[in-house]
Design brief:
Chain lengths: 253, 253
Amino acid sequence: MPQIARLTRPSQLSETVSKTIEQWIADGVLAPGVKLPTEKTLSAEFGVSRAVVREAISRLKAEGYVASRQGAGAFVEARPGQASFRLADDVDAADPAAMVHVFELRYIVETAAAALAARRHSAPDLARMREALQRMDQAVAACADGAQADDDFHVAIAAATGNPALQRFIRFMGHQFFDSRVPTWSAQGHAAGRAAAAQAGHQRMFEAIAAGDAAGAREAARQHMVEAARRLGIDTKDWDPAPQAPWEEEALP
Amino acid sequence: MPQIARLTRPSQLSETVSKTIEQWIADGVLAPGVKLPTEKTLSAEFGVSRAVVREAISRLKAEGYVASRQGAGAFVEARPGQASFRLADDVDAADPAAMVHVFELRYIVETAAAALAARRHSAPDLARMREALQRMDQAVAACADGAQADDDFHVAIAAATGNPALQRFIRFMGHQFFDSRVPTWSAQGHAAGRAAAAQAGHQRMFEAIAAGDAAGAREAARQHMVEAARRLGIDTKDWDPAPQAPWEEEALP
DNA sequence: TTATATTTGTCCGTATGTATA
DNA sequence: CTATACATACGGACAAATATA
């Protein structure tokens, strides 16, 4: 029997309350800076206990919608909801258009990260990349699953940029596409040579980064991402990140 | 009296508890699928009431770290925290290192967006940019605050990429730095010519985008972002996104 | 400045529905 | 089927911070 994703029941009082207030904020009923009704009032209006209201407000605080001050009240934040960036929960499902858009965003940051990694990498960074590369080599040789090592390799590059914000964003994006690596590392992927091709791209990226060649690393990453995008059926004609010198145009795929 | 940003105190028991558990998950102490200690146990261990623990878990649920089932317990999600991307809460305050990192991420996506906008823009997109430009022109002429129009201009470029994910991310990043535009559009900024200089950069970006010149738009955006970064005291020496043709090197600042 | 009322923060006890052994 | 464990929810209470008169 296949694994059934457990449905998230909305039948949680505190969640219902928090979503309702969130909607009030989104609709402008509660403008930034405005004071929320008191917990006592809210509990009376919703017909729930004060504990439920407090849990709902905890959610809103965690998501950056409100901030509360003891003795004063809870207030709508100046830029409600802008504290966190959320993608559609189901990138790899249902909505192919959304996947294209998210992948393009991933392409942008991954190519830039490769260039920065070429300039800023340390010895431990290279060792981490090399270790992930070796695990993928083994996976290619054994026709095994190298998806995790694949992910680790990209995260290692991100770490080599020395920019934790960039690193966390790439990790975030990578996890969104973790499932999409299956066609590469599946049995069919090995048979069709997709795993070996991907690994060759990784190798080119690593060599350019290790050599400190920022432009080469960016181009290797670009080719690698374009190939991955095409496996997902994504149009990549607008993806030339660099002002290419004219004579290079023909050399590109 | 200038507007003083109200400090966010971490002295909230439920926040301390949720951050601690979040760290456990990040460190792998609590792996995906693992059951959290019961509320009773947690309240005993932390020395707080169950209400505090419940509020902490509400936060974790809102952020996608855990899911709880009545009668069973709370469990770490399969990809904890990867449902949303969060930056340090105080980008424009306190932590200058974090600001540098976030600004670099912004630089990456803004330059790429300018290039994509040059290729994909529609007539309404151009009209929207032109409108924001005119508002900034008026602000420059009147020594008024053009921060909102500035933000709108960058969002209009993002919209012209036709990529809603990229658009939302740029909007998200822009809001993080909204306060940082003050030195440009303040009275001192006008007097020092910073507003006029920024506006000249906007104009160059617009012209390249309108002409469909992707490389030019990228370079104009790059210069604009580098200038903004330098106003914030950020080192930009690693920021040449493109494999430049050799003869172009000297022409760059 | 002082005093008082309001509001959030925290704690405790209890009851109920659900999951699991 | 029964018993236990657990999350969910309720109510009352006090402390601490804030706002107001």
